[in-house]
Design goal:
about 325 residues; alpha/beta; Rossmann fold; GMP Synthetase, Chain A, domain 3; 2 domains; 5-stranded parallel β-sheet; 4-stranded mixed β-sheet; 10 helices; about 20% strand; binds xanthosine-5'-monophosphate; nucleotide-binding; GMP synthase [glutamine-hydrolyzing]
């Protein structure tokens, strides 16, 4: 019968057979999928693997540091960390259309990735943490025949000219199975239990033009929200929770004064594969506590709303 230990052993043998003495590069995003793929491949071929972490400056608070610490220091995986935040934020200046944002980030990601891959001397194979739902959802979508709802930049994204064979050990797995595999590989719960995070990062959680200031603001809001969710013991019951920084300013009152600051939305959903999702039913006391902390602790945000849309008809991310 099928077991995760069996899958691990089979995949390791398969990776070794496919790669031989070749060299593999893997794009690491800090997310669950690429992390598990990297650790599995590292277990199979050790230092024949180099991971490239393209940091677009649109990650959650403290995340970049955590990626480096975990993979380089704890797992001893060869890791290139490229801080390309200036490049990405520069290219996103004034870009408001969600698909243009996604395509801009996707294109730059490939450019920077290629640059770093060349710098480490190239490779014969490219590893990706592609999952089964990614494979399906990028081909068509539940919303209708061959309609692209959103272009996922991390699926089959690299150009032909890189001429590398793909190593995709997670291609037949669903998210919950990837997590199980991660546990099987001894990976810390902080990484494998983490909520999914989109490749384009906070850029698609800032409707309208993205700036470094807005990204910094959103990181603060998001980290308060996640901290409260963890404290309440709700993190694992939720598929994905995050904040969105809205492109509106609203009037508020603080002490004796009037404020005219930005509004944000909180989102939390339950799901099994991200294809459909239900709103997480927080109790009001929780929501008002989070709202109170955000408005009091994050200067520049004076209003908090909760998104109560399920998928469909909404999508999980706002863009
Ligand atoms: P939507 O917003 O389409 O999201 O309901 C479904 C799931 O996919 C994630 N998502 C992405 N993941 N690259 C990714 O790796 C992307 O470009 C991307 N866009 C959305 C989203 O966070 C949710 O878990």
């Amino acid at each position: 019968s099928w077991t995760m230990a069996g899958f691990r052993a089979t995949e390791i043998a398969r990776i070794r057979a496919q790669v031989g003495s070749g060299r593999v590069i893997c794009g690491l995003s800090g997310g669950v999928d690429s992390s598990v793929a990297a650790v599995l491949i590292h277990e199979a071929i050790g230092d024949q693997l180099t991971c490239i972490f393209v940091d677009h400056g649109l990650l959650r608070q403290g995340e970049a540091e955590q990626v480096v610490e975990t993979f380089r220091d704890r797992f001893n995986i060869r890791l290139v960390h490229r801080d390309a935040s200036g490049l990405f934020l520069g290219a996103l200046e004034g870009v408001t259309d969600p698909e243009v944002k996604r395509k801009t980030i996707g294109r730059l990601f490939i450019e920077v990735f290629e640059e770093e891959a060349a710098r480490v001397g190239g490779a014969d194979f490219l590893a990706q943490g592609t999952l089964y739902p990614d494979v399906i959802e990028s081909v068509s979508f539940t919303g209708g025949p061959s309609v692209t709802i959103k272009s996922h930049h991390n699926v089959g994204g690299l150009p032909e000219r890189m001429r590398m064979q793909l190593v995709e050990p997670l291609r037949e797995l669903f998210k919950d199975e990837v997590r199980e595999l991660g546990r099987e590989l001894g990976m810390p719960e902080t990484i494998i239990g983490r909520h999914p995070f989109p490749g384009p990062g906070l850029a698609i959680r800032i409707p309208g033009a993205v700036t470094r200031e807005k990204a910094d603001l959103l990181r603060k809001v998001d980290s308060i929200y996640l901290e409260e969710i963890r404290t309440a013991g709700l993190y694992d019951a939720i598929w994905q929770a995050f904040a969105v920084l809205l492109p509106v300013r609203t009037v508020g009152v603080m002490g004796d004064g009037r404020t005219y600051d930005m509004a944000c939305a909180l989102r939390a959903v339950t799901s099994t594969d991200g294809m459909t999702a239900d709103v997480y039913p927080f109790d009001m006391a929780f929501l008002t506590r989070v709202a109170g902390r955000i408005v009091n602790e994050v200067r520049g945000v004076n209003r908090v709303t909760y998104d109560i849309t399920s998928k469909p008809p909404g999508t999980i991310e706002w863009e």
